Amino acid sequence: MSAHRLPPAEWQPLQSLLQAGLPQAMLAVGESGSLVGQYCDELQQAALCFAPSAPGLSCGTCRACRLLAEGNHPDLLVITAETGKRIAIDSVRHANEFLAYTPQVSARRWLRLEPAEALTTAAANALLKTLEEPAARAHILLLSERPSQLLATIRSRLQRLPFPAPRPGQCVLWLEGLGIPPAAALWLSRQFANRPLRAWQLWESGWVTLCPTWIDALLGLPQQGPVAALRLADNWAKDIDLLLLRELMLSLLADLLRLRNHRLDSIVHVDYLQSLEAMAQSAQAIFLWEALEGWLRLPESLMQNRNVGMLLETLLLSWVSIWSGEKAHGITS
Ligand SMILES: [Zn+2]
After folding, report:
1. Are the CB atoms for 194 and 171 separated by under 8 Å?
2. Same domain, 78 and 175
């Protein structure tokens, strides 16, 4: 699902790769929502296109490009796992079979698998055999946010693609280029400097208008205490997008840490500066770090099939404990 094509100014790394000849086993590293996913989209399109146009990227009009646009290209297999879910061995067995056949439409078969760290050990081992001896014209692209979590045997088989790191100021320009009003683009880019695609998704989902309600509830919580935290957890558990809440919490916690260090230049939630400053002063550092760790660990906690309601209770209690100084009840690790 590519929201938009990369602007031509960003094509150079792709053109170099295509000219040099594509490896059969590739690794792309980048945060979800960063432009790395976009680079991979462009690369797989160019790799499957019949007649890449003069600059080297896909033509957009040939049969392969049309099949890709329709999501029907028989030589492309994409395996993804939602956050907190694993990629099981059955999916990899299916992928291995897919790669063994000769291409039907394009010059090669293409497997894309993301995030690679979601592979179970059995699935990773099943993939390893194919990585060691890929069929002729089979290409395998793994995307990973945390390549250190991959099996070393897998990692050593992959050639890492040289996609560029995000540049300062790139995100806000990119968002404005998509027609997002400058103030909102700036606000989003403060939070998602390295992840413009994520910022764009959030803009599309209406999060920019929803966010203030969540912030008000969260900033009021320390004064109201643990009972209110449990009530809010109960309310939110029904329908809140926990990972979206995580984005917000991480940015609030980062703001508190910045304010404690008198770094006013990079505050995300400038509209709440006064409240956040007061809260930063009275926060207890050790509990601040504990809360931060809890939110950082959330994807792994979800992966262990933890109950969402209980997770949320623990996380909101640990947020309140930053100011009450009492260890949150029910924290298990
Ligand atoms: Zn084409």
Report:
1. yes
2. no
How many Å lie between the centroid of ligand 1 and the Cα of residue 33?
Answer: 25
- Whether residue 333 is contained in a domain is answered as no
Q: Which is it for the CA torsion 55, 4, 243, 113, positive or negative?
A: negative
In contact, 163 and 30? CB cutoff 8 Å: yes
- Cα of 45 from ligand 1 centre, angstroms: 8
Give 132-164 pLDDT, tens digit per residue. 999 999 999 999 999 999 999 999 999 999 888
The answer to whether residue 329 is domain-embedded is no
Residue numbers of the domain that contains 96: 8-160
Same domain, 72 and 212: no
Distance from the alpha carbon of residue 280 to the mean position of ligand 1, in angstroms: 54
**180 and 235 belong to one structural domain:** no
**Distance of CA 100 from the midpoint of ligand 1 (Å):** 24
Same domain, yes or no: 146 and 85: yes
**70 CA to middle of ligand 1, Å?**
13
CA–centroid distance, 11 to ligand 1, in Å, is: 16
Is position 241 within any domain?
yes
Cα 282 to ligand 1 centre (Å): 59
Coarse DSSP helix, strand, coil percentages of the chain, rounded to the nearest 5 percent: 60, 10, 35
Residue 2, pLDDT score: 45
Q: How many residues does the chain have?
A: 333
Separation between Cα atoms, residue 224 and residue 106, nearest integer Å: 61
Residues 149 and 71 in one domain: yes
Residue 307: pLDDT band (50, 70, 90) is: confident
**Contact call for residues 303 and 86 (beta carbons, < 8 A):** yes
